[in-house]
Amino acid sequence: MNSTQQWQSVTWFEVDEHQAGQRIDNFLFSRLKGVPKSRIYRLIREGQVRVNKKRIKAETKLEVGDQIRVAPIRYEQKDETAAPVSDSVAQSLLSRVVYEDEGLLVINKPSGIAVHGGSGVAYGLIEALRAATGKKYLELIHRIDRDTSGLVMISKKRSTLKLLQDMLREHKIRKTYAAIVKGQVSLDSVVYVCPKKVSQVKPNGWLQSVLKMPLWFMHRRYQVVLIKFVYMV
């Protein structure tokens, strides 16, 4: 049975203790072999993937005992295959690893590469690292935009993935961004309060994202500031 035929009927999965805490999109990537990631995201958006009979989002975290239903997948499999990761790309990425232990890998992602493949993207950082290291289990702990460079944490163990994602969700790990600002900021530190609707945090409430911008470097025509996000309900 080829991958096109394999998923043409309803498919069920049950989440066990080793899979708990994983995002639904990452869970499906590893199980729906041969199905493009863009197609999986479309299934999620259209409600064709249900967890415990409910619609979900790509970032939904799974729990032990969750029942996952995937509607029949019908698509024409393209003949072309994803572009292979060249040796030069693999070596370049490996040279950017700044920390590694038995459960965690931290890499300084360059600008211009997406963290994962998708529509119009043959491969991303995570696929390239799997190819470069030969490790099948490598999972993104978080994401940054394609055009943003900076540190990305990659888990090598399921327990590390769950631990660090929980810490991010509880704001025990803070992210800091360096940004170039045209002109000059008049104060050494500027605080912006940006309301954002987040119903999961507080029903019908707002989450305030506070951007703290201490001055890092000054030039006659621009400044470089460090941006830190602090969330307050």
Domains (count): 3
State the helicity in percent bands: 10-25%
Mean pLDDT: 77
Low-confidence spans: 76-83, 188-212
Instruction: Provide the succession of SSEs.
Output: HEHHEEEHEEHEEHEEEE
Main beta-sheet strand count, sense and barrel state: 4 strands, antiparallel
Q: What class, by secondary structure content?
A: alpha+beta
- What would the CATH topology of the largest domain be? Pseudouridine synthase
Global outline: globular
Provide the gyration radius in Å. Answer: 20 Å
> What would CATH call the architecture of the largest domain?
2-Layer Sandwich
Q: Per DSSP, what share of the residues sits in E-state strands of 2 or more residues?
A: 25-35%
- Walk across the major sheet and give the strand order: 1-4-2-3
Distance between the termini: 51 Å
Task: Give me the count of strands.
Answer: 12
CATH superfamily of the largest domain: Pseudouridine synthase
Helix count equals 6
- What is the CATH top level name of the largest domain? Alpha Beta
